[in-house]
Amino acid sequence: MRASYLKLVEKIAEWIQRIQALGSQFRESALLNCSDGARESILDLSDRLRNICFVQGLASDRIQTIVRSRNCRNLDEIAGTALVEESAITSKQDRYRAEWATRATNAMLGRKERDG
User: How far is CA 111 from its chain centroid?
Assistant: First the structure.
């Protein structure tokens, strides 16, 4: 499971789906030959490993840090936090690009007026 990292172009929603599939496969394999007494412990361990792999596989160190700081208990909370942070980062980048484009356009128009 650890070998599957979030690719830089992959969205967190896609990473959630991949990590859920990998987690399910791991659970199935881990439960194949377990005793009934060990079942609960194995399920708990597999959930913890899935959550750790999800966070460590996130491409953004910033999102990893934020998710870890929230002490989320399950994958739904972890994934929700990651999605919110990804959206916030994307919005901030979009606003920056728009402001930069506006400034560049205004600068070009200002030059044309001075030169014209």
Answer: 43
CA atoms of 80 and 23, how far apart (whole Å): 17
CA–CA gap between residue 60 and residue 85 (Å, rounded): 10
Mean pLDDT of the chain: 84
* Distance (Å, whole) CA 46 – CA 23: 7
pLDDT at 38 over 70: yes
Distance in angstroms (rounded) separating the CA atoms of residues 88 and 111: 35
pLDDT on residue 30:
87
Q: Buried b / exposed e across 66-89, counting CB within 10 Å, b at 16+?
A: bbeeeebeebeebbebbeebbeee
Cβ 55 vs Cβ 67: under 8 Å: yes
Q: How far apart, in Å, do the first and last CA atoms of the chain sit? A: 62
pLDDT at 20 over 90: yes
pTM: predicted TM-score of the whole model, two decimal places: 0.70
